[in-house]
Amino acid sequence: MSLYWTHIAYIIAAGLFVFSLHWMNTPRTARKSVIAGSLAMTVGVFATWFSPYVERTFETTSYILIPILLAIGPGIWLAKVPITAVPQRTALSHAFGGLAAGLVGTAKFFYWYNADAAAVAEAAQVVVSEPPERSLTHFRVIAIVFEVILGFLTFTGSLIAAGKLQEVKWVPQRPWVYRGQNFVNAVAFAGCLVLATILVMNPHHAVAPWLFGGVILLSLNFGWMLVMPIGGADMPTVIAILNSYAGLAAVAMGFVLDNPLLVVAGALDGASGLILSIIMCKAMNRSFTNVLFGAFGQVKAKAGAQEQKSYRSATPEEAAGILEVAQRVVIVPGYGMAVSQAQHKVRELYDALTKRGIDVRFAIHPVAGRMPGHMNVLLAEADIPYDRLVEMEDINPEMPQVDVALVIGANDVTNPAARHDTSSPIYGMPIIDTDKAQSVMVIKRSMNPGFAGIDNELYYLDKTLMLFGDAKGFVGEIVKALAGNSGH
Amino acid sequence: MNALTLAAEAAHPVPTPVLFLMVLMLASFVGLGVIRRVSPLLHTPLMSLTNAISAIAVVGAIIVAGGPDYPTWARVMGSIALFASMTNIISGFLITNRMLKMFKEKKP
What is the pTM of this model? Predict the structure, then answer.
């Protein structure tokens, strides 16, 4: 197949990728996006396999076929993880993407470096020689450097992110901070850029391979250093940012390999990550730089005089009694619900209440959970119809008319302190206006503070009842009580 | 039009990097436009889908693993990159599909 046809196929694949993302618009068309995307990928892979870029010998075929066959097992296994593990699977996937980009860039650099060295040596043998054409142009080196730095830092950074989410033992959940950390990180990254610049200016120098190795090591190092100080609660934004980095690395690869399909697909992924991280940052009312370099955990919450604030608690039977006579109920799910795997019990509660003619909806805060849209998928897994899931901006105006707000495993996203307490680390963050409902019930394991490490004013309101227990267990008890009551 | 002018025209083809930058710019705008309209409901499957799409790096890996005259060490790097990308492709599309199957509308 000539290059011409390869690139025609690339255009078709690129178009299919755009359709794929377009169909993600609404759940009704969303299934088509997987079909379009996998079709696009197949076209791209076969077009490349049959292109002049690849020689189809037995040897090269094994280098290509064997990894593909080996990948089937892990690929399928990773697709079957429980929905609560999707954030870490996503982070791991970004790590793989970064690794691939870094490796391809490295291979191309040394391939061209050696090719140029050989060409120079050959030309030197000819008496009257003109300087041979160099493959390693400045532009190509710049593209390679981008690809390699982005790729390797995404690799280690994403591994750490996955570790934090999976709560792997030697990766600290809390932000790992120390004095002068931002300075050290900045110096490390600056060092990497300095090496890269020298490399770009002298790509054929004898020590260029060493400079390149230095760039690789510093990038690997910078990746994990960048993510270590970020706490588990900020992971939604970090994952989104790493998502766009993986896409940008693919774009750089496209520039290196003169491949427009890589540039387009990489740009689509990069744009997606960028938009999602902006949404996340807005939802937390913090800027990019604040999330990446603000070391959230460092903000000392006002260790105010711990006045003995009183709160009221209730039993499952009492909670059931209150829910029974409500007309409009809004459930606010959070990470706690995910951890407790309570979504199926929540479904039973939803069914029990809906049967009684009660209007039940779910208030979804953009950063609830560990990943954008996490709560939506968990509830969908429990077969809750998606029209019952309402975004924060849409549900907040209606909260005053809600009879009961039931908070399950969510904390900081319901804390009214975000509105007025300027010393609070969550000040300014948009929240679900749970406190505006007629009455509030909160299911929580104990009064321990959440990831922000601060007290939640909501718990001390007169209209609030604390329901202590594990989410799954407590909701199960409420459902039983409701079933018992319906006998009356 | 004489031969001199034609030659002058031929001496100034559009430089490839510049064309690519044009493609990048347009693709970015298309990306921003298309992603903006994705419902927040679907942000998680969106992320796993774009994961799978970014595994288009598989194309680069194939070129490095299978290109003519690449030394063994380069092919090995390409193979590792291929393994990583292919894993992303398989798990990305499968898990996106799995999540999307769960989104059901209320039965009337």
Answer: 0.87
B60 and B89 together in one domain: yes
Identify whether residues B44 and B97 lie together within a single domain: yes
- Are B57 and A70 within 8 A, CB to CB? no
Q: Check whether B108 has a pLDDT greater than 60.
A: no
Task: Identify whether residues A289 and A361 lie together within a single domain.
Answer: no
Contact A34 B98 (CB under 8 A): no
A338 shares a domain with A412: yes
Contact status, residue A436 vs residue A363, Cβ threshold 8 Å: no
User: What pLDDT is stored for residue A294 in this prediction?
Assistant: 64
Nearest to B57 among A37, A101, A240 (CB): A101
pLDDT above 90: percentage of residues in chain A: 48
Of A261, A296, A331, the residue that ends a domain is A296
Interface confidence, given as ipTM, is 0.90
The gap from C-alpha A220 to its chain's centroid, in whole angstroms, comes to: 19
Confidence of residue A328 (pLDDT cuts 50, 70, 90): very high
Which amino acid type is present at position A110? Answer: F
Which residues between 25 and 84 in chain B have a beta carbon less than 8 angstroms from any beta carbon of chain A? 27-28, 30-32, 34-68, 70-71, 73-84
Residues A127 and A221 in one domain: yes
**Same domain, residue pair B66 and B20:** no
Query: Same domain for B47 and B91?
Result: yes
User: HSE-up of A136 (CA within 13 Å, CB side)?
Assistant: 28
| Structural domain span for residue A26 | 1-80
Q: What is the mean pLDDT of chain A?
A: 87
What confidence score (pLDDT) does residue B67 get?
Answer: 86
User: Is a pLDDT exceeding 90 seen at residue A420?
Assistant: no
Q: What is the mean pLDDT of residues B14-24?
A: 88
Confidence (pLDDT) at B26:
95
**CA-to-CA distance for B50 and A266, rounded, in angstroms?**
9
Buried/exposed B22-50: b ≥16 CB within 10 Å, e otherwise: ebbeebbebbbebbeebbbbbbbbbbbbb
**Axis-axis angle for helices A27-49, B57-66 (nearest 10):** 20
Q: How confident is the model at residue A452 (pLDDT cuts 50, 70, 90)?
A: low
Query: Cβ contact (<8 Å) for A373 and B43?
Result: yes
Parent domain of B48: 40-103
**Structural domain count, chain B:** 2
